[in-house]
From TrEMBL:
Cell compartments where the protein resides: Cell membrane
Cofactor annotation comment: Binds 1 pyruvoyl group covalently per subunit.
Function of the protein: Catalyzes the formation of phosphatidylethanolamine (PtdEtn) from phosphatidylserine (PtdSer).
Cofactor requirements of the protein: pyruvate
Pfam families from the UniProt entry: PS_Dcarbxylase
GO biological process: phosphatidylethanolamine biosynthetic process
Subunit relationships: Heterodimer of a large membrane-associated beta subunit and a small pyruvoyl-containing alpha subunit.
EC number, as in UniProt: 4.1.1.65
The entry's keywords: Cell membrane, Decarboxylase, Lipid biosynthesis, Lipid metabolism, Lyase, Membrane, Phospholipid biosynthesis, Phospholipid metabolism, Pyruvate, Zymogen
HAMAP family in the record: PS_decarb_PSD_B_type1
Record organism: Aquisalimonas asiatica
Gene name tied to this protein: psd
Record NCBIfam families: PS_decarb (TIGR00163)
Name by which UniProt lists this protein: Phosphatidylserine decarboxylase proenzyme
Domain of life: Bacteria
Amino acid sequence: MPERHLGGRPSLADRAKSLPLYPLPHHAVSRLVHRLTRVRAGWVRKPLTRLFIRHFGVDMSEALTPDAAAFPDFNSFFTRPLKPDARPMPAEEHAVCSPADGALSAMGRIEDDRLIQAKGQHYSLTDLLGGAPDRAAPFRHGSSATIYLSPRDYHRVHMPVTGTLREMVHVPGRLFSVGRHTVKSVPGLFARNERVACLFDTALGPMAMVLVGAINVASIETVWAGEVTPPRGRRVRSWRYDEQPTRLERGAEMGRFNMGSTVIVLFPRDTVHWDTALTADAPLRVRQAIAWQNRSG
């Protein structure tokens, strides 16, 4: 399986841009952003939204509500729903869908407990999923895809395949930026940042979707639990759903970022084969086919 990931060693500029993030009070900054993005005063939200659309080139023609002034606060604009036909389902029944709009950061095989972050940068599968070896075991030697959501992207996350929720895990951590320069230069970034891991049972076996927080990502939420972060405390928390199964169809919304970040999808060994035409930094759209199920897997 060919690997796709951000290439090149981190430059001096990459390292220089990343260094100021280490002493920064990540959570305090993000709590402030959480409050500001929910201010409803028109003199705050309207110019902020207009500036954001202009600066990042947001395509409002896809939005269910294309009038930016109609949103009650900036966060409602940022997590705006799209028109029903904006992201069609793939024709192939066995296609695995992209869970998010964004850019492909990495895709390929999980080498035992090691995932690729960027050229020369790896991190632990077990750490990513909250430090429980039994939780990580089904994905050893499996497959993973990492998708980065830029500020201009649609920020709701959807199901790659149909699945039934088994467990949700909140892992506290830092909130480094997840831009190219930090992915290339901050060791173990995705296993250091705060994250919410959601584990599903699917026709392919287990599937994990990990929503990774970042600086200014004021909260992460799921359709079944609402806002999961930002909570207080430093302990890993988990919730089991054996008695209250939640089934989500392929392509259905499963969560969202209130401000943007990264999604990592994990599958067991020999269950999917990725689209070989995709390259690192390839633009992706929700429900776009990025892989196909191995029927014998």
